[in-house]
Write a structure and sequence with these properties.
Layout (H helix, E strand, L loop, with lengths): L5 E4 L2 E4 L3 H12 L4 E5 L6 H6 L4 E2 L8 E2 H11 L6 E4 L3 E7 L3 E6 L3 E5 L1 E4 L5 E4 L29 E5 L3 H10 L5 E6 L8 H12 L4 E4 L1 E7 L7 E7 L5 E5 L3 E4 L3 E4 L10 E2 L2 E3 L12 E3 L4 E2 L7 H19 L14 H8 L2
Parallel strand pairs: 1-9, 2-3, 2-10, 3-6, 10-22, 12-13, 12-18, 13-14, 21-23
Antiparallel strand pairs: 4-5, 7-8, 8-9, 11-19, 15-16, 16-17, 20-21
C-alpha cells in the first residue's frame, strides 16, 4: 500500500506561485536551497496574472510600468537558473511535522511533499471558483460538473462543454482538444478576455473544425432519470432568450473566474490574526518554527500589502530558512554584484 504513495522530497516547499512566491525561489536559490512550488492555479503569477494580467502596476522598483502578466514572466525568467519544480492545480490540504523532524504537506491529488522548511506565500488566500447561477447545479457537482480540473485523465475520450471567456476557459479548451472526444466552448459573446496567443490558437482550431463554439449561456441542466448526477442535456439560452439544447454532454466545466478565501491554512495550527498568519519581522517566521509566511498572507504590525514588501520579506525569510536546511553550515552574506560564486549560479555556468 505504501508503495503507491507519491512522496516528493525537497529542501523547501513554497505554497503559492504569485510574484512573492516566485521571488522566494530566487532568494532561496542564491543560498543553494532547492524548492518545489505548489499552486491551486494552472499557471504562475497568482492574483496578478489571474485577476488582472493586463492591469498596469506602477510601484515595482526600476519598472515604471509593468502588467501582472509581464511581471510574472520576468520573475519566471529570473528563477530559471535554479530549476524549481512547479505543481499547478494542486491544493495543500494538510501540514504535519516539525522543524526538528521535517514537514509533510499533503495535496488534494495525493502527493506528499517532505521538506525542511515551508514558505506560505498564498496571497489573500485560496482561490475559489465563482459558480454560475443555475438552479440545482449542486446536484451535478463533482460528478459531471467541475469548477477546476484536478485529474485530466477523467476527461479522456469524453464530450466536454466549457463555459467562460477568460484564460482558464480557453487554456483548458485548448488542452483538452484532441484529448477529449469533443470539446465545445460556450461564451456569451464572440470576444474573449484571454491572452492573444490563446485566442489565435482557438480560432485556428475552430477554423479547422477541431473544436466547437457556441455563443450563449447555460440556462439549466437536465439530468438522467436515475438521479445519479450525470447530465442528460444542457439548455442553452442566447442573448435574445432563444433556447437550444446540447445533448451528448459528459462533463460541464464552468470557468467564470475566481474569488479568495483563507483555505486550509486555517487548519495548520498557526497563529492567525485579521485573516493572515502572524509572523515576526526578523525572519517572517510563523508561530511554528520552520514555517514562514510572506506576502499578503503574513500579518504583523505596520504591514503593507505591497508586492515590493513581499520581496523584502522573501529575502529575510531565506536567510532564516538556511539555518534549518543547513544547520551545520555558516551562512556568509554576499552581494550578487561582487560574488563570483553567485554570478556563476545566475549565469548557469
Amino acid at each position: 500500500m505504501s508503495e503507491s504513495i507519491n512522496y516528493i522530497d525537497t529542501q523547501a516547499v513554497i505554497v503559492g506561485a504569485g510574484p512573492v512566491g516566485l521571488f522566494s525561489v530566487f532568494e532561496l536559490g542564491l543560498l543553494d536551497i532547492s524548492c518545489h512550488v505548489v499552486d491551486v492555479l494552472l499557471r504562475p503569477g497568482g492574483q496578478c496574472a489571474e485577476l488582472y494580467p493586463d492591469k498596469p502596476i506602477y510601484d515595482i522598483p526600476a519598472l515604471p510600468i509593468v502588467t501582472g502578466r509581464e511581471l510574472s514572466d520576468r520573475l519566471m525568467e529570473q528563477i530559471k537558473p535554479f530549476s524549481p519544480r512547479f505543481h499547478f492545480g494542486e491544493t495543500i490540504l494538510k501540514l504535519e511535522g516539525s522543524a526538528a523532524d521535517g514537514f509533510c504537506l499533503h495535496s488534494g491529488s495525493g502527493k506528499i511533499f517532505r521538506c525542511a522548511v515551508v514558505i506560505i506565500a498564498s496571497g489573500g488566500g485560496l482561490f475559489v471558483a465563482k459558480k454560475p447561477s443555475i438552479a440545482g447545479i449542486e446536484r451535478y457537482e463533482d460528478t459531471s460538473v467541475f469548477y477546476a480540473i484536478r485529474e485530466k485523465s477523467k476527461f479522456l475520450n469524453k464530450s466536454i462543454v466549457i463555459a467562460g471567456g477568460g484564460d482558464s476557459a480557453l487554456d483548458w479548451a485548448l488542452e483538452l482538444c484532441g484529448y477529449a472526444s469533443k470539446v465545445r466552448l460556450l461564451h456569451r459573446r464572440s470576444e474573449f478576455r484571454a491572452t492573444p496567443a490563446s485566442v489565435r490558437k482557438f480560432e485556428d482550431l475552430l477554423s479547422r473544425k477541431k473544436i466547437n463554439f457556441t455563443i450563449g449561456s447555460v440556462d439549466s441542466i437536465e439530468g438522467n432519470d436515475n438521479g445519479d448526477g450525470t447530465i442528460s442535456r444542457l439548455v442553452i439560452k442566447d442573448a435574445d432568450g432563444n433556447k437550444t439544447y446540447l445533448s451528448d454532454v459528459d462533463y460541464f466545466l464552468p470557468f467564470f473566474g475566481l474569488t479568495m478565501r483563507p483555505g486550509p491554512i486555517t487548519d495548520f495550527s498557526l497563529e492567525m490574526a485579521d485573516g493572515g498568519i502572524v509572523v515576526d519581522t526578523h525572519a517572517f517566521e510563523s508561530s511554528r518554527q520552520g514555517i514562514f509566511a510572506i506576502g499578503d498572507i503574513s500579518q504583523y504590525s505596520g504591514k503593507l500589502k505591497l508586492i515590493l514588501s513581499g520581496f523584502h520579506e522573501a529575502a529575510l525569510m531565506s536567510h532564516k530558512a538556511h539555518e534549518y536546511v543547513y544547520p551545520d553550515r555558516k551562512l556568509r552574506f554576499q552581494h550578487t554584484t561582487s560574488s563570483s560564486s553567485l554570478r556563476k549560479k545566475l549565469s548557469g555556468a
